[in-house]
Amino acid sequence: MFIIYTITKVVIKENNSNFLYLCGMDIVDFCDFCDSLPAAEQTMPFDDTTIAYKVSGRMFACIGMDAPDHFAVKCDPDRAIMLRDRTDSVREAYHFNKRHWNDIFFNGDLTDDELKREIIHSYMLVVRQNVTPKALREELLRALLSEQAKYFE
């Protein structure tokens, strides 16, 4: 995590237009939140600058340290379209299946709670579709519900 904190501070100091990172969720908060999800693991499968979060070996979110202004999450196709129509902060993910993945920008259009809800939605999709056995899947969903209950209200 030390590298991420250092990179974020450098970005803020070098470019005043990134002032937004001081107000609301940023790459550090994103990583902390993803790390807090049950059985989530941080990996770097693509290169040395892209962090991918996986549960049970399947990716649910990723962020680039070289482009810390947005992150990608998996999304139900109907929900993805609805979100893209609702705000400019949500777009088709650049390097992923456009039907199932969204890029979400930290530009202030979405609140921190809305950003976290999208991360949780992605996490839950992956858990429901890919985690076996069923007992483990149910345990992860129960743990998520108890730890992040406010996002399900």
How does the SSE layout of this entry go?
Elements: H1 2-14, H2 27-36, E1 40-43, E2 50-55, E3 58-64, E4 67-74, H3 77-86, E5 90-92, E6 101-105, H4 112-130, H5 134-147
Antiparallel strand pairs: 1-2, 2-3, 3-4, 4-6, 5-6
Provide tags for this entry.
single chain, 5 helices, globular
Helix-strand pattern, N to C?
Answer: HHEEEEHEEHH
Biggest sheet character: 6 strands, antiparallel
Find the structural class using helix and strand composition. Answer: alpha+beta
Shape: globular
Query: What is the CATH fold-level name?
Result: Aspartate Aminotransferase, domain 1
Number of helices: 5
Written account of the structure:
With 153 residues, this protein is α+β, with helices and mostly antiparallel strands. It has a single domain (2-152), classed as Aspartate Aminotransferase, domain 1 (Alpha-Beta Complex), CATH 3.90.1150. It is 43% helix and 22% strand. The protein has helices spanning 2-14, 27-36, 77-86, 112-130, 134-147, and strands at residues 40-43, 50-55, 58-64, 67-74, 90-92, 101-105. The chain has a six-stranded antiparallel sheet with strand order 1-2-3-4-6-5. A hairpin with a 6-residue loop joins strand 1 (40-43) and strand 2 (50-55). The longest helix has 19 residues, at 112-130. The chain is globular, with a radius of gyration of 15 Å. The N and C termini lie far apart (31 Å). Residues 1-23 have low confidence and may be disordered.
